[in-house]
Design brief:
It is built from 10 helices and 3 strands. Strand 2 and strand 3 form a beta hairpin.
């Protein structure tokens, strides 16, 4: 029984990775409906691992949106207007969160940010997107928690969820993971300076750099 369970989990993972890879490579286009039965036939598997893969893609990556009784729809992660709106708002609110957190941040909390960033660095050779998502959320939500502002945290969580698909694209861009680690290090150094103005600017720049990388990626795809 244990072996059957292990085989099923392996099949789940294969189906999930296959669908995710095809979305990221553009084989499943934005707006395309992904029908469970059709995918099961295409991949030569039962409907259950496909259904679970689509649920996971919706919940963990934002690459698809599940529509009750209709299957899933591939989200559009290539709209410059959408990118600009999300990241401009995030830059301002994340900067505000850092400013609010700066006066009270402790050495223990700074050490926590350092430890998370070191874990991100270990992903350099694997680029495990989901693990990166978890660590990246842990890094930023640690800062949010220092603001003592539930409304601000709620807005930041909403924007973070809205940009999940974009982060999947961002972390796969050559060289971007290294830059993220360096930018997180800059944020940590800014917190150590205890200068709210400085930390706000550094966090703003982090999101501006992410936006620039994503816009370049979109433009490169258009030229191909």
């Amino acid at each position: 029984m244990a072996n059957i369970g292990s085989q099923y989990r392996t099949m789940q993972e294969i189906v999930y990775e296959t669908i995710k890879d095809r979305i990221l490579k553009g084989q499943y286009a934005p707006g395309q409906r992904l029908i469970t039965n059709d995918l099961a036939t295409e991949l030569g598997v039962s409907r259950m691992p496909v259904r679970e893969a689509l649920q996971r893609l919706d919940a963990a990556t934002g690459l698809v949106t599940l529509i009750p009784h209709k299957g899933a729809v591939v989200n559009d992660s290539s709209s410059e207007e959408d990118l600009l709106e999300i990241f401009h708002i995030r830059a301002v609110l994340e900067g505000l969160a850092a400013r609010l957190a700066c006066p009270t941040i402790t050495e223990e909390q700074i050490a926590q940010l350092v430890a998370i960033n070191e874990k991100v660095l270990t992903l350099e050779n694997t680029v495990d997107e989901e693990h990166f998502q978890d660590l990246n959320l842990e890094f930023h939500s640690t800062i949010w928690g220092m603001t003592h502002s539930p409304r601000l945290v709620g807005m930041l969580k909403s924007l973070y969820d809205a940009s999940r698909g974009y982060r999947y694209i961002s972390v796969k861009l050559p060289g971007r993971l290294d830059e993220i680690v360096h930018e997180h290090s800059d944020i940590i150094a800014a917190f150590r300076s205890k200068d709210p103005n400085n930390v706000e600017v550094v966090v703003n720049n982090h999101y501006q750099h992410t936006l620039e990388w994503l816009i370049r990626s979109i433009q490169d795809k258009k030229q191909k």
